[in-house]
Each structure stands twice: as structure tokens, then as C-alpha cells.
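Note to self: keep these together.
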Amino acid sequence: MNNSKGFTLVEIVIGMAIMCIIAAAAFSILSTGVKAYQYDAAQSHIIGQAGPTMSILVDKIRYANSISSLNVGDSTQTLSFVDSSNNVCKITKGTDADINTIIFTEGTSTQKMAIGIVKSITFNRKTIHQLDIELIVHDYGYANNKDKSLTYTVFMPSVTS
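Structure:
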């Protein structure tokens, strides 16, 4: 009677196959978690950059005295207005080297905002006192990142035209 202890080749192969299946399932679960984390990090990064920019622009537009480049019912990618200090201001998407940036001009001063993440900005004048702003941003530093649309409605009580 042969009483040797150990595993047969068939048992070892079956055990390895089961371990491979478990490892593949674990890898798939971990991989999905990492991708979700990367996506959330990219979205947080975009909102962290675009949110403060939109807050500044909304505050400037909210207290404008007049909007000179946009009639009610019209939509544009450039907005010109006179602010509460009577400075002529302009908000537009950059060109050339600043293609993915918002350019804000106030009098003779120019600021670049949301640098490198802007796909488009659209201003839509609903009424004489209401303006919708849609900013579409994309963080090119993160792979497989989707566009994020931020939409704000601004009520402008001081606007006369």
C-alpha cells in the first residue's frame, strides 16, 4: 500500500486555475476603483479651478451697469459690459497660446483665468436683467476625462441696456 502524502499534478493545476480566477476578479475590482478615483480627482480639479473663476465673473457681471454686446435672446462667446466702476470689461475665450483659457479685460488690466481647461464659454441673454453663462471645461492632464459643464444664471439689477 502506497501511503505517500502530497498533491497530484491534477490537484495542483486545478488549485492554480482557481487562484487565477480569484486574482483576476480582485484585479478587476481594484482597477475599477482606481479608475473611479482618477475620474473623481479630475472632476474635483476642474471644479476647483473653474468654480472660483466663475464666481469672479458672475460677481463682475452681476453689478454691471450695461451690457453692450448682447441683445435679449442672443447668444455669444464674447461678452462686453461696463462694470459698476464704469470700466469697460470684456470676457472671452483665449486664442493661439491661450486657446483653453478665459481672458478677462477690465479697463487696461487683463487677467487669464481657468488656464488650460476651457473648451468654451457661452453667454445667453434671457431678459434685460438675466444672463446665462455656460462654461464647458476639460482637464487635459487626466486621461479619459469627460467635459464638465458649469451653468450659472446671473441676475443683473443695475443693467439699463
